[in-house]
Amino acid sequence: LYPVWRWLTSVRAAIVLIAILTGFALAGVIIPQVPPQLLGSPPAVAGHIDAQRPTFDHVPAATLLLPLLGFGVWLVIRVAAPRARAALQPRPLRGLPLSLSLIGLGLLLGLVIDGLGGVGGLALTDALTEFPWLYDTNGGIFNLFNQPYWFALVALLALSITTCTTSRFPPIWRTVRRPQRRVNDRYFERARQRLDFASPAPAAATADALAAALRRRRFSVRAETRDGAHYLFADRYGWVQLATFVSHLALILLVVGTLLTKFTGEELQFWVAEGESRPLFATGGDRQQVQVIVDDAIARFNDEGQALDFRSLVRVTSGGEEVGAGEVTVNGPLHAAGFRVHQAAYWEHGAALQVRDAGSGQLLYSEALLLQQQFFGPRISITQASTGVLFTDEVIQLRFPVADVEGGAYELIPLAETVSVALALLPEGDGFRFHYALLPVAAGSPEGARLDSAALRIGRPPPVAPRVRLSDAAGATVLDGVVPLQPTGLAEGDHLGLLPLPGGGLLTVGYAGDPRRFFYFDPADESRRGLLPPGQSVDLGDVRLEYVGEDADHSSHGSLEPGESQVLGRVELGYGGAESVFFAVVDDVPGSSGQSVVAIERFGRARTASEFNAFGGENVDLARSTVSGLYADRPARLAIGLGDVPRFDLDEGQARVVGDYEYAFLGPREFTGLNLRRDPGGTVFWVAIVLGVLALLTTFFVPRRRIWARVSDDRTQLAGLATHGVDMTRREFRWLAGDIGAADIGPPAPEEGEDWDR
Fold first, then answer.
1. Measuring CA to CA, which residue among 568, 556, 233, 236 is closest to residue 391?
2. Cis peptide before 515 (omega within 30 of 0)
3. Which pLDDT belongs to residue 374?
4. How many whole angstroms separate alpha carbon 21 and alpha carbon 17?
5. Distance of CA 307 to the CA centre of its chain
6. 416, CA 20 to 30 Å: which among 184, 219, 434, 573?
7. No. of H helices and E strands in the chain?
8. What are residue 235's DSSP bridge partners?
């Protein structure tokens, strides 16, 4: 056991352990650790790891390898030529340890190489796959502070510090309590710090004056006479050496605090809706009686809709009695029931849903639902072109990626069995461009799930078609628009289209030949046939037809800005901007045949899929809407899908009977994310920090001074020891000589840059 004892009492071993733990702590700061609330769920831990791995897939090779190479060179030199280390070190780096010099040179060279283009990267996660335990042991390196090897290192450090402190205490205590009071006479001639001068008075008088001067400088003095001379021993700040035990105690307390936090501390994180309450503990017993109530969730947004500040008004009750209440923020907790209650997050996308029995009115379900899932898509409206009857007005989820456009996505909306309209959002600058295209593709076909930009006609210019104007006998315009054309297949350049007439019937129009010539043709009336140049008109009896000229036909494909619309055959497509819709998959909603999907639409425009301007709701100005004002004043809407039951919508405050149940949307709800923490080790940590700082300040800025003096009738000799580079020869000794009236000693003076206040 003696070698183990030697190793545990070695200061070098303790420093190595501290360096290793420091490296672990640094890695734990750099590598995103698994949040505490996910640790109980292996799938959540695996998801966190998968999300973080790509950030470590490329590490600069030279910056990583060259410092390791420098360390390897130092090891070789240390083993092969230990005496040559100083000679091999570059002169500019003399004074630094050779190991640090080589590692620093390697790091500097690596940074330069990688900055100039490098030698490639290292896929760090590929290399670490050879050591699966780094990932698989409950999070591995992404959960460092809960690994067995972390606790083993902490325990080993605590054992080393305790053993080292125990072994050093007896000799240090003896040095403090029973310091060496006598030295031999030769010490006064060989001591590194000494002063020899003529005694200004007889030995007894000089010794008394010297003792008085030392006591004025807060030295404890012991005097004795032997062999015809007077001997003095003076000690100042002798207790300072005990500060090393205080610093060791601080380290031990840090370890104890860590263990207390780990094994007795508690941390809870959860969401609470505004106006709702939540028990802290789901288990039975008295602890279940502790409740957290959120009376109000408050947030401030900037002009772009991003949160600037959030806070909540919270109450805590225990056994029905209020034990704490106040405002909580991220850095301003509420202390109640032994916990510190912090606000950790804010979420504006929630919805209050109630379900009652339609016959009896009995309340069956009442929940504030946290809607954290989202999709990003275009808000569209589809109406019948001739009557304006609204078919749908919703945000469309784009399920399919555009094969050759990064970040682009589309969805197919069926118009007929084999005809669909494709709706796409394509990245453009800081936002998105909305694109549509009529396609001869069935919405549910495999072909429709793998379309590329060519199939979607992205970037293709619209075809040319005639713009015509119809007016009645009084000269009033009854139609002014572009007539879509289709190729006839009979001759190149021939295209036909059908123009509906006000009184019923259809007139065939189109282009013939190259260059294009506009013609009109009525199969039942030869008088209603002919050619028209641009700007000319013809009387067709009850209406007058004018050919305005060529124009772009956007009825097959094109782009729309928010607020614009386009007629596509018998329907009119309107685009209201791009939005994020927030939803949740919910169990146990009455009337559902399985899981239910509940989504809230706030009628705001999102610039990206992850940033949402929360228009509507508390503390948010509706006038900031950027969706062309189309939906600025509209209340929120809840969309509900009950398994096999078709989707239905509820405006804020609206109720609707579906089957045997009445569903009511009470309105949006804000949610507060709370963090509740009880940390018995926290107080221990603060005590350890205070003790450690005081011990370090004492050790480094209050150096111990010991002075031995030999006084005879003709000479006075001083010798001393002091820590931290205090030069007693030029300071204390000369001051003392001046105090007792020595004539041949000049006054002390500090050298340039020297601080004598220590």
1. 568
2. yes
3. 83
4. 6
5. 15
6. 434
7. 14, 38
8. 220, 706
Provide the pLDDT for residue 363: 95
* Nearest partner of 441 among 418, 421, 458, judged by Cα: 418
From the list 670, 98, 15, 720, the residue with the least C-alpha distance to 351 is 670
Q: How far apart are CA 207 and CA 199, in angstroms?
A: 9
Cα–Cα distance measured from residue 238 to residue 219, given in angstroms and rounded to the nearest whole number: 9
With a CB cutoff of 8 Å and minimum separation 6, the contacts of 553 are 462, 463, 464, 465, 482, 484, 485
Which run of H or E residues covers position 393?
Answer: strand 390-395
- Per the listing, tokens 């012991």 go with 222
Reference 534, options 545, 552, 547; nearest CA is 547
Going by C-alpha positions, the residue among 700, 756, 703, 708 that lies closest to residue 736 is 708
Q: Which amino acid is at 617?
A: G
What is the SS3 string spanning 551-563? EECCCCEEEECCC
Question: Both tokens of residue 420?
Answer: 């669909």
Position 610, amino acid? S
Let me know: does 53 contact 34? Beta carbons within 8 Å: no
Contact 527, 485 (CB under 8 A): no
Lookup result for tokens 């009184």: 503
Helix intervals (H) in 567-650: none
Q: For residue 323, which phi and psi values (nearest 5 degrees)?
A: -115, -5
H or E stretch at 11: helix 11-30
Cα distances (angstroms) measured from residue 446 to each of 442, 450, 453: 9, 7, 17
- Summarised one tens digit per residue, pLDDT across range 139-190 is 577 778 878 888 888 888 888 888 888 888 888 888 888 888 899 989 998 8
Structure tokens at 116: 């100039």
Residues 643 and 635: beta-carbon distance below 8 Å: no
pLDDT band, very low/low/confident/very high, at 610 (cuts 50, 70, 90) = very low
Per-residue pLDDT reduced to its tens digit, 506-515: 889 999 888 8
3-class DSSP assignment, residue 245: helix
- Taking alpha carbons only, the member of 61, 65, 66 closest to residue 123 is 61
Give Cα separations from 628 to 107, 304, 593, 623 (angstroms). 55, 15, 39, 11
Tell me how far apart the alpha carbons of residues 120 and 581 are, in angstroms, rounded to a whole number.
42
The residue behind tokens 């008109």 is 537
Mean pLDDT calculated for residue range 35-40:
71
First-to-last C-alpha distance (Å) of the chain: 44
Q: Give a three-class secondary structure readout of 180-235.
A: CCCCCCCHHHHCCEEEEEECCCCHHHHHHHHHHHHHHCCCEEEEEEECCEEEEEEE
DSSP secondary structure letter of residue 56: G
Per the document, the length of the chain is 758
Instruction: Give tens-digit pLDDT for 95-124.
Output: 456 677 778 888 788 777 766 655 555 555
Domains of the chain: 2-155 (no CATH), 181-237+703-758 (3.30.160), 465-541 (no CATH)
Rounded to the nearest angstrom, the gap between the alpha carbon of residue 733 and the centroid of all alpha carbons in its chain is: 60
Question: Residue 71 in contact with residue 102, Cβ under 8 Å?
Answer: yes
Return the structure tokens found at 273: 């809706």
Both structure tokens of 338: 């032994």
Hey, what are 750's tokens?
A: 């500090």
pLDDT in tens, 524-570: 788 888 999 999 999 888 889 999 999 999 988 999 998 899 988 88
Indicate if the pLDDT at residue 753 is higher than 60.
no
Q: What is the largest CA-CA distance in the chain?
A: 152
d(CA 332, CA 181): 57
Residues 672, 727: contact at Cβ < 8 Å? no
277-279 and 290-301: which strand pairing?
Answer: antiparallel
- Tell me the pLDDT band of 576, cut-offs 50, 70 and 90: confident
Can you give the C-alpha Rg of the chain in angstroms? 43
Structure tokens at 184: 């031999």
* CA distances (Å), origin 183, targets 210, 707, 715, 722: 18, 11, 17, 16
CA neighbours closer than 13 Å in the CB half-sphere of residue 726: 20
